[in-house]
Automatic annotation (TrEMBL):
Keyword Lyase: yes
Domain Aromatic amino acid beta-eliminating lyase/threonine aldolase: 1-272
Keyword terms: Lyase, Pyridoxal phosphate
Family as reported in the entry's similarity comment: Belongs to the threonine aldolase family.
Gene Ontology, cellular component aspect: cytosol
Cofactor: pyridoxal 5'-phosphate
A GO MF label: L-allo-threonine aldolase activity
The protein, known as: Aromatic amino acid beta-eliminating lyase/threonine aldolase domain-containing protein
Swiss-Prot/TrEMBL GO biological process terms: glycine biosynthetic process; L-threonine catabolic process
UniProt entry tagged with the keyword Lyase: yes
Length: 327
């Protein structure tokens, strides 16, 4: 990957003159079954410019109450786009019930913002990294078509979903108008995400990218890493899933940890810790050079994410470390 970055052919991407960025964008569009794509520095920017391209000021989007856009993107769609987010309850598998979605759609009323867009997430981070099945996406698409709405998919880990469900990414993005996916998570590139959609949509998104400061010049050095990710590092995501299941199975047997291992479908594990202060637990882990995230200190909830740089042998070390700390 470093060799590809160092030897990349580059140009000015703001003027769409960087051949390596163009190659990455074409590859991303092909993988997702869309007409075009645009390279962005981050997934947050990718989601933001997608919403800005679908919606105008005063429009409303429907999204889950546990979604990344709602919780972890600094309210950008509101602050920068004047777009009103209407949050609806996520199910444990990351979906939103079709009945609740339909009830959330505004009807023409002088008092209400018009509903323009449904935002979904696959895999769903806060719902145990659950992959969303194409049958559900079809149901949402039928609903959106009925009411003239668009669908944006936060697919930061869409390749994890595709590997877990044993199907091409395009099958999971077939019934959405736009999709963002990250290169810098399980796909292991140092930076970058892609937004994919129709050619007309991507023209709007490219201009929105420029407006929010995402236009990059010789970005091919970064895009080269993304090409390696998409060509060489997708199939190996299964290793991360297997390591996550191994870790979940073993630590679920430790007294003081509450974890439903049946919910582990990809590379993300959430668990609850009882009987030990969360900060003290993190400090003990860091002494052993193990880093995880405490997502809810009050509830004692933690998240562990498996990736390319955590081997099966290291997972074994983590398991033994958990056992020794909680003994």
């Amino acid at each position: 990957m470093l060799d590809a970055m160092a030897t990349a052919k580059v140009g000015d991407d703001v003027f769409q003159e960087d051949p390596t960025v163009q190659k990455l964008e074409n590859l991303a569009a092909e993988k997702t079954g869309k007409e075009a794509a645009v390279f962005v520095p981050s997934g947050t920017m990718g989601n933001l410019i997608s919403v800005l391209s679908h919606c105008g000021r005063g429009d409303e989007i429907l999204l889950g109450n546990k979604s990344h856009i709602s919780l972890y993107e600094v309210g950008g769609v509101s602050a920068l786009g004047g777009v009103h987010p209407r949050t609806l309850p996520n199910n444990n598998d990351g979906t939103i019930s079709i009945e609740i979605l339909e009830k959330g759609i505004r009807h023409s009323d002088i008092h209400s913002p018009p509903t323009r867009l449904i935002c979904l997430e696959n895999t769903h981070n806060l719902c145990q990294g659950s992959p969303i099945h194409p049958e559900y996406m079809m149901s949402v698409w039928n609903l959106a078509k009925k009411y003239g709405l668009k669908i944006h998919l936060d697919g930061a880990r869409i390749f994890n979903a595709a590997v877990a469900l044993k199907m091409p990414v395009s099958k999971l993005t077939e019934k959405v108008d736009s999709v963002m996916f990250c290169l810098s998570k399980g796909l292991s590139a140092p930076v970058g995400s892609l937004v994919c959609g129709s050619s007309e949509f991507i023209d709007k998104a490219r201009k929105a990218r420029k407006m929010v400061g995402g236009g990059m010049r010789q970005a091919g050095y970064l895009a080269a890493a993304g090409i390696i990710s998409l060509v060489n590092l997708v199939d190996r995501l299964q290793e991360d899933h297997e390591n996550a299941k191994m870790l979940a199975t073993q630590i679920s047997q430790i007294e003081g940890i509450e974890l439903d291992k049946s919910k582990i479908k990809t590379n993300i594990i959430f668990f609850k810790l009882t009987g030990l202060d969360g900060e003290a637990f993190l400090q003990q882990l860091e002494k052993k050079q193990i880093k995880i995230l405490m997502t809810d200190p009050d509830a004692g909830m933690f998240r562990a994410v498996l990736h390319r740089e955590v081997s099966k042998e290291q997972v074994g070390t983590v398991i033994e470390s958990f056992k020794s700390i909680l003994a």
